[in-house]
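Consider the following assembly input.
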Amino acid sequence: MSRGKFITFEGGEGVGKTTQIRHLSKRLNAEGIETIHSREPGGSCGAEAVRHVLLSGMAQEIGMSPAGEAILFAAARADHVDTTIRPALKDKIWVLCDRFMDSTRVYQGEADNVEPKLIDSLEKLAIDGMVPDLTFILDLRADIGLERANKRRAEGESADRFERETVAVHTKRRQAFLKLAQRDPKRCKIIDASQTEEEIAYDIWSIVKDELLSDKQNKSKSKSKTKG
Ligand code: TYD
């Protein structure tokens, strides 16, 4: 294997991304594949600092526009890609990331109406070619996801700036994720997140095996190599 694989997990609030990353990580480790579990915004020192500004609501309170927030998400992403993701993949470590570029497309682009041109330019700058090998979109009704996210939150902890929005906004985001998956079905796989934890983990593992670990995949890679 020339480099590790990059897999991202996307979806609305409370869809179970973190739990599923843990399941996949265990399965991969059992196959002898080293993994890291990262997240956005965050995943590197610089990006974690920006995370606080974005999620505490500080950016919004000081009157920053959705475009300004998109720029901050991109700055955090650029640092994450450079200092965490790219070096890990180079060391043949697989990176499993909780949210990535598709969250910006959906949260800032589709739901917050930031200009598509700006979203595209920021994405190019931030990821610098680092497109995920696979993206799982965990799909769940927005009201169910929000209820789960509310339950999961520790006592005394308040909802973050994005969780505080209405069910209608969350539903718009869900539709945007589905639309995005339809546009890029090769990379983006929709997973029914209303199933049990084990069923979801099974679906994800089947796809990873088929798309990234199977002989078929390795053979087609070596064929394309010999074709030059
Ligand atoms: P987080 O606490 O990581 O929650 P979750 O479990 O929902 O992933 O919060 C991240 C929040 O930031 C989430 O509400 C989505 C939002 N977000 C964006 O708006 N744009 C982005 O590009 C990213 C990565 C996240």
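The mean pLDDT is 93. Ask yourself how this observation constrains the way the partners meet.
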